[in-house]
Write a structure and sequence with these properties.
Blueprint lengths: L8 H4 L3 H15 L11 H20 L3 H20 L11 H12 L8
Helix pairs in contact: 2-3, 3-4, 3-5, 4-5
Amino acid sequence: RPGRIVVNRAAVADDYIAQAVLSQELAHYVLGHAGGRCRDRQHECEVEARIASVELLMTGWGLEYADAVRLQYAYLKSVVLAAQRGEVTGIADPGEPCRELEEFAARFRTPGTCE
C-alpha cells in the first residue's frame, strides 16, 4: 500500500547490523528526507536520522533505550573504523563518519571517540 513500509521483523530480529541500518533508513523516510531535501544539509540529515533511529529501534524492535543507543553507537563506531582503514566508499569526506559518531554521542551524553 502507498505510504506504508512493511518489515518482516523476524527476518532481521537477530541481525543487529540490519536493525541499525534499517532503522536509520526508516528514520530518513519518517523525517521526510527523500526527494533531494537533504542535498544542501547532508550531514545534518544523517545525524537527525541516526538520532531518530533510536526511537525506531525501541518501538519497532522493542529494544530498551540504552540498548538502542548502544546498538547505533556500535554500528557508527564500526563505520568509523572501516573509514579509517579505507574500506568505506561513497563518502566525499572521510572524516564524516567520525563527526556523525561524535554528534550522536554528544546527543545521548555518552563518551564518543573516533580512536
